[in-house]
């Protein structure tokens, strides 16, 4: 299906605006000005709709290009404001700092933790965990034990609740917060989830998690065009 059918702007302009917003600390109005300098007149609400539409699509399309992660998980949550209330962005990286997975949740409990781990385990680029390092959140041990009982993860998987070992994931949060903080909160859970999927996708691209050599693109912009069928 043509993802750009019925759009009033060229596809490369749309993807460029989306990429700028998801990668840099820019507002929608900043991007309006940048595009205006290039002779493109577009409203900030149009750019917002592009981000909500193509952010999740970008996340979905890069999945098959992601490099394998290691079997050492570092898991933590960070806070995201939605409609004036704090929600929880579950995130995991491996021992080298590569993103394993992420999930926005309204709650911070056993059900949410278990759902996040199941999402991470379902991604083909992730290995079954040998060790999982978490903070002192009491929801993690019972959630992981349930997964062991259900044979979703090996019984011998080591669970470590040691905060100082999770510095790598806390450092990784900073990039996401650098992009989301200027947004001053999201208007709905759905738009927050859509935007965060795009931000995380660009973050994985920035960290070199994508096998660019398997595509004809030589840079991130070209690779994104390739994902949407805009380059040979």
Automatic annotation (TrEMBL):
UniProt keywords, alphabetically: DNA recombination, DNA-binding, Transposition
Listed Pfam families: DDE_Tnp_IS240
Source species, domain of life: Bacteria
Domain Integrase catalytic: 64-224
InterPro entries reported in the protein's UniProt record: DDE_dom, Integrase_cat-core, IS_Transposase, RNaseH-like_sf, RNaseH_sf, Transpos_IS6
Primary role: Involved in the transposition of the insertion sequence.
Name recorded for this polypeptide: IS6 family transposase
Species per Swiss-Prot/TrEMBL record: Alicyclobacillus fodiniaquatilis
